[in-house]
TrEMBL record:
Keyword Lipid metabolism applies: no
NCBIfam families: heptsyl_trn_I
Source domain of life: Bacteria
Gene3D superfamilies: Glycogen Phosphorylase B (3.40.50.2000)
Enzyme class: transferase
Keywords: Cell inner membrane, Cell membrane, Glycosyltransferase, Lipopolysaccharide biosynthesis, Membrane, Transferase
EC number: 2.4.99.23
Protein name as it appears in the record: Lipopolysaccharide heptosyltransferase 1
Record localization: Cell inner membrane
Length: 340
């Protein structure tokens, strides 16, 4: 294998958790070049992985919303770039129409995708001349590694390797906002795309007051006006908490690197915190922690389940756990797959 294309278009958390397939491929095929196709909104995150040779991107999300001519031309240019190389294999670990179209347009002898029953959109099957086996009985993130290994003929070994290097400030960029104080920083990622994934504001307030008592500075990121209002409401319950200004993905990544602790709901930035080796607690209220959570012994853990909203004490116990303080009672499940 000399050149392989990975297709994982969106979203932030999924792309972050798919990145370890690059290290897996290069362990199995030393010297192989790995390209990646992603939506423009998340392309920079893929570029932070030093093992990826080319990042192919187009404004697919933006074009879907606005249908602008400039975005259409950018998509056309990206197709030309996609076809500039011939691939030994294309691995579509997304499994919807847009990823399948990318896979089909690529110049490749083999194009691998999920079985029809495992596709996000069954019509995507038109693009593939090779299929992964049945989805393995594990979390979604390890499953992507296993499927890629099946397609290319190698066994997955060891914990996932993300290889993320967040770029430092460039001279032209704005100065990063500081959070007042010198105590350890805890980031609360309270916002998510769906209301049912949110954790109650009152519990964020109670958690923030307890962590403040333990000596943390609390900071709250946000990405929309509604999320800003929620951040302000939580901050009003936590003396000394800081509502951050609206930050770009790279600025938030740098802020995560500053943090001693990240607590958040099922959202992409919490996956990014885990990949950046931060102490991370992920709270689930509507989706499966076993399928979509983060797990690394005494560093990252997930709790909650659909319809079962974790209490503040459970989150505090999880925070103790990721600080390497195992509890006397039955230990928290950390999953069958350890993460780096």
């Amino acid at each position: 294998m000399k050149r392989i294309l990975i297709v994982k278009v969106t979203s932030l958390g999924d792309i972050v958790q798919a990145l370890p397939v690059v290290a897996d491929i290069q362990r199995a095929f030393p010297g192989a070049k790995v390209d990646w196709a992603a939506d423009e909104a998340f392309a920079d995150v893929v570029r932070w992985n030093r093992r990826v040779d080319r990042v192919l991107c187009a404004p697919l999300r933006r074009f879907k919303k606005a249908r602008r001519w400039a975005d259409f031309k950018a998509i056309a240019a990206s197709i030309a770039e996609l076809r500039a190389h011939r691939y030994d294999a294309v691995i579509d670990i997304h499994g919807v129409y847009k990823s399948a179209i990318i896979a089909r347009l690529a110049r490749a002898s083999r194009r691998f995708g999920y079985r029809s029953r495992d596709l996000g959109e069954r019509g995507a099957a038109f693009a593939y001349n090779g299929r992964f086996g049945p989805r393995p009985d594990c979390d979604a993130w390890h499953g992507m590694r296993v499927s890629t290994g099946e397609a290319l003929g190698y066994e997955v070994e060891g914990p996932p390797v993300y290889d993320l290097r967040v770029p430092r400030n460039a001279p032209a960029e704005r100065v990063m906002p500081a959070v007042p104080g010198t105590q350890p920083l805890a980031l609360f990622f309270h916002a998510t795309s769906k209301d049912e994934k949110k954790w109650p504001t009152s519990r964020w307030g109670e958690l923030g007051r307890e962590l403040t008592r333990r000596g943390y500075r609390i900071a709250l990121p946000w990405g929309s006006q509604a999320e800003h209002a929620a951040a302000v409401q939580i901050a009003s319950l936590v003396p000394g908490a800081t509502v951050l200004p609206q930050l770009s993905i790279v600025e938030l990544a740098r802020k995560i690197e500053e943090a001693s602790l990240v607590v958040g709901v099922d959202t992409g930035f919490v996956h990014l915190a885990h990949a950046l080796m931060k102490r991370t607690v992920m709270i689930f209220t509507a989706t499966s922690k076993d399928h979509c959570g983060v797990h690394a012994p005494y560093r990252s853990t997930s709790l909650g389940s659909p319809g079962q909203v974790p209490e503040v004490k459970e989150v505090l116990d999880a925070i103790d756990y990721v600080h390497g303080e195992p509890r006397i009672e039955e230990p928290m499940r950390i999953g069958s797959v350890a993460a780096a």
